[in-house]
Structures are given as structure tokens and as C-alpha cells.
Amino acid sequence: MKVSRHLGHFRLDRLMLMALILLGLLIAGRAWLAENPQHDPWAPLNLDDPPGWATQRKLAALRSDPVECRAVLERSNVAFKALPAAGEGECHRTDRTVLVDAPFAPTPPDATCAVGAALELWLRDVQAAAELNFQSRVARIDHFGTYNCRRLYGRDTGPWSEHATGNAIDVAAFALEDGRRVSVVGDWSGTGPKAVFLRQIRDRACSVFGTVLSPDYNAAHADHLHFDQEARGFGGVCR
């Protein structure tokens, strides 16, 4: 009986010890997440935080919630302007957001807020890649636009393009502060720093956009990088 009683106390003590260890790990984990909100799936997204485990999931959630998306831009001190709804039918656009200070030309892109939030993060990677490869920053990014009321590849039937609702942007070239120019059509196939730069920023875009298409995808993208925020149940597309 004494042996059985001692064994019972031992099992209880061991269970209590395990419970205390788990509680300590839980408290430590919550404290660590509080200090690293980029890894916390429940923490509000702030674009000023470094990218983390939860960043891509939080960005994806903004695709269907422009109100929350604009709250994220405000929280992150990103200057933007919300435009009134426009368009009709399949091309009706209720979410039109412009990043005021982004270095795009010929005009600031008028896109969905989810595209704008991803662009804000991607621009930081663009500048870092430019400084790494060219020791210069990007002064201007040329784009082919965000909105085009059309179906995919200009067909008369079939799925509508993400451009039909401004949920995409096509980026063509980059002008550096030192005067050099990097273009997708002219530099993608090279082997020097311009080609390396273009591939680096393509790869980085894959972590913030739902779809990234480059000249490696097909001839229709030979002169630009296509980014969009189409929600894909099986994950993003990066080509």
C-alpha cells in the first residue's frame, strides 16, 4: 500500500511539474510574440514591423477587407488617398486606393488597397536590392497601369483579368538616382547586376502578392512584371 501511495504521489508531482513547465512556456511564448508581432497571427498588421511568419497571411486577409486594409495603412503611417467608386458591371471598382508618396510614373497607381499594402512592403525590398546591386536608390518606377476593363489576354470570353477591378499592376522599368535605367524588356535576359536585381525583386514580390508573373512565365510578360492580389485557395503563383 505504501509503495502504491508513493507511486501515486510521484505521478501527481510529475503531472504538476509538467503543467507548470507548459504554463511557463505559454507565458514565455506570449511574451515573445508581444515583442515580435510580425510572427503573431493575432496581432494587428503594421507594415513598419519586419516581415515575419504571419505577415503573408495577414496581407492575404486584406484582399477581401478594404476597410481593414486602409486601417493598416493608417496604422503604418503610409500616405494614401481613397477614391470614389467607378466603373460598371464586372469592372465596377469600389476599392480604389492611391499611395501618395510612392515613386511610380507616369501617375501614382490607382489600385485596390491590398495591392497598395503589398507595394509598400515590396518597395522596401526594391530599394534594398538597388543599393546592394548598384549602390544607388530607385528614383522612379515605370508602370503600365493597374486598371483595364478586359478579360484575360484580351479575349472576348473567359475569366476577367484582375486588372478589370484594379487588383493588379504591371511594372516595366526602374530609374536609379544615379541616372541608370533597368527595364524588364531590356535587362531580364542578361547576366549582370541588372538581371540579378530584376530577379531578386521578382522573388521578393512573391512573399506579398497572390500572383507574380515575369518573362519566365510567357511571352506576354516579356516587358513587365505582373503583380496581383487574386485570392488563391492553394497558395500564391510565382513564375
TrEMBL record:
Origin: domain of life: Bacteria
Domain Extensin-like C-terminal: 68-239
Protein name: Extensin family protein
Source species taxonomy: Bacteria, Pseudomonadati, Pseudomonadota, Alphaproteobacteria, Sphingomonadales
